[in-house]
Every structure is written in structure tokens, then in C-alpha cells.
Design a protein that fits this description.
The chain has 309 residues and is mainly α. 76% of the residues lie in helices and 4% in strands. It folds into 2 domains: 227 residues, Up-down Bundle (Rhopdopsin 7-helix transmembrane proteins), CATH 1.20.1070; 74 residues, Arc Repressor Mutant, subunit A (Orthogonal Bundle), CATH 1.10.10.10. Strands 1-2-3 form a 3-stranded antiparallel beta sheet. The longest helix is centred in the N-terminal third of the chain and has 30 residues.
Length: 309
């Protein structure tokens, strides 16, 4: 049964890599901060799956796999798991355009750095090499409470972001991610009381399926389809944009030039150099373009221009 789970996880991971590769390509091409944050989040969860598979595989197939190695890998997996929550909150904060998002993100990252050391400290966990048992101390319960509270906050941010994105092109993308995150949240709720009441953990093969991997896999298919179906307009097509579109959004000649450069995948610095204007001026023009068209990023801009061609 464990071998079947490992095979399943490998298939899920391959789907995740494909989704990550194609979304990463568009994140680099469009320099979209939202897509970049999404890639960080998706990569963190993929890494958590890889670590889970690795521990199962080593336990099943490597006789010399020691309890200490298991203890270290389990701790690293917990760190990555906390990182997933931070990345989730950071992504939804970006969608919400929260004024204090930078300070909140810094607080989250600072907390996770503290907990990285806390996980391996005697205040949280102690390894009994002789009996292959991990003793869970009061620090572990504190970490569990912090994890659930942070996850709850991330989910609330997700629903707020979905409400704001409901009438935009990001609706389905955000909805799918929120469904995926909610499955993980329910999974965490179901194990929360057990984490608080458990005092020892035997270093054995983990039984049971990570059910959040199912929506992760389905969302991976959606991400692949979403980006494969996205074809930005060519500069030639933008040249033929209707006067009604240009006048409806009050796009100036200079702003139209900026849009052409964005479609070509050029950075702000390159655009400034080619148009002989300052970097600050490029950013100002982009801000004005986003405001006029009603988008928040380069990727959204490309999607809106494509739909109007």
C-alpha cells in the first residue's frame, strides 16, 4: 500500500513540476509580482510533498535509515510546512493590496526563522535514539497553535482576495487556489487536537494519504491548462487595436508604446533605455495604464489587451 502511495505522490509531483515550470515562465516573462509569489507558494508545497515521499521511500527501502535521519527530515518538513503558510499569506496579501502587507510579511518571516530553531530545540522535540521515539514538549504545542492561527489568517485573506477578484480575470485562478488551501486547512483542523494531546511519536512509516495532494493535483491541471491557453497579443495585433478601445481607456501614444514594450517581454529598465525616459517615468506610465484599463499587473494587462483585439 505504501508503494502505491509513493507512486501516486511521484505522479502528483510531476504534475506540480509541470505547473510550476509554465507559471514560472510567465512570471519571468511578465515580471508579475503576483505570479512570482504564486510560484514561491506552489514550489513550497511541492517541496513538502517531495520530503514526504523521500521519508516514505527511505523507510521502506533503506535498512540503514536511522531514527536521527528521520528526526531531521521530519523537522525540515515541518519548517517547509510553516513556510507554505507564510507563502500563502504573502500571496493573498499581495492580491488584497493591503497597505501594511510588507510589515505583516516581515513579521511572518521573522516568526518562521525563530521557529526553525525552535523545532529542533529541547523545548519542542527530543529524540530518543534507543527507542526511536520523538518526545513532544510544550514548545511543539505552541508551534501547533501558531500554525493553525496563521493558517486561519491566510484563509481569511484568501476569501477577501476572492471577493475582490470575483469580477476580474483572476477569479477562477484565485478560487482554485483557495479551494486547494481550504482542503489543507481542514486537514490541519482534523489533526490539531491530536497534535496538542500527543506526547510521543514513534519513528515509523507514516500511514494515510495526504488528502490535500488531491486538490493540489487537480489545481496543477488547471494551472497548466490556464497558462497553455494564454497567448499574449503580438505587437502587430496591438498596432491594430480599435480606436474605440484606445479612446475608451484614454490611452495616450506614449502609453501605447509602453504596452508594446511590455508585450515584447521587456523589463522596465529596458523600456526606459529604449524610449529614452527615466525608470520612474516608466513606472508612472505603467501605473496610469493599469488604472485606466482596470488591471493590477502585466499579466492582467496582456489578458485584457488580448481580449480586446
Amino acid at each position: 500500500m505504501e508503494d502505491l502511495q509513493i507512486a501516486y505522490y511521484f505522479a502528483v509531483i510531476m504534475i506540480g513540476f509541470a505547473a510550476l515550470a509554465i507559471s514560472g515562465f510567465w512570471a519571468v516573462k511578465t515580471q508579475d509580482a503576483s505570479l512570482r509569489n504564486f510560484c514561491i507558494l506552489y514550489a513550497a508545497f511541492t517541496l513538502m510533498l517531495i520530503l514526504s515521499v523521500l521519508m516514505k521511500y527511505l523507510t521502506l527501502n533503506v535498512e540503514s535509515f536511522s531514527g536521527r535521519s528521520w528526526y531531521l527530515l521530519s523537522g525540515i518538513c515541518q519548517v517547509v510546512n510553516y513556510g507554505v503558510i507564510v507563502a500563502t499569506a504573502n500571496y493573498f496579501l499581495g492580491l488584497n493590496q493591503t497597505p501594511t502587507k510588507k510589515r505583516i510579511a516581515i513579521l511572518f518571516w521573522s516568526t518562521i526563522l525563530i521557529f526553525i530553531g525552535f523545532i529542533f530545540s529541547p523545548l519542542s522535540t527530543r529524540l530518543d535514539d534507543a527507542q526511536n521515539i520523538i518526545h513532544l514538549e510544550s514548545g511543539f504545542q505552541i508551534l501547533s497553535i501558531w500554525y493553525l492561527l496563521s493558517f486561519t489568517y491566510a484563509i481569511v485573506l484568501g476569501f477577501t482576495a476572492l471577493q475582490q477578484a470575483w469580477n476580474t480575470d483572476k477569479r477562477n485562478f484565485t478560487l482554485g487556489l483557495l479551494i486547494f488551501a481550504t482542503f489543507g486547512y481542514i486537514e490541519s483542523l482534523l489533526t490539531f487536537s491530536e497534535n496538542l494531546s500527543t506526547s510521543t511519536v514513534s519513528l515509523t512509516i507514516e500511514n494515510g494519504l495526504l488528502f490535500s495532494s488531491i486538490p493540489y493535483m487537480l489545481y496543477g491541471f488547471f494551472v497548466i491548462r490556464h497558462f497553455l491557453s494564454f497567448a499574449p497579443p503580438t505587437p502587430t495585433e496591438v498596432d491594430t487595436l480599435s480606436e474605440s478601445f484606445l479612446s475608451a481607456h484614454a490611452i495616450t501614444d506614449r502609453e501605447r508604446e509602453i504596452i508594446l514594450k511590455v508585450i515584447e517581454g521587456k523589463s522596465n529598465a529596458t523600456i526606459a533605455s529604449e524610449l529614452f525616459i527615466s525608470l520612474a517615468t516608466v513606472k508612472t506610465h505603467l501605473h496610469n495604464i493599469y488604472t485606466k484599463i482596470g488591471v493590477e499587473s502585466r499579466f492582467d494587462l496582456l489578458a485584457r489587451v488580448r481580449s480586446a483585439k
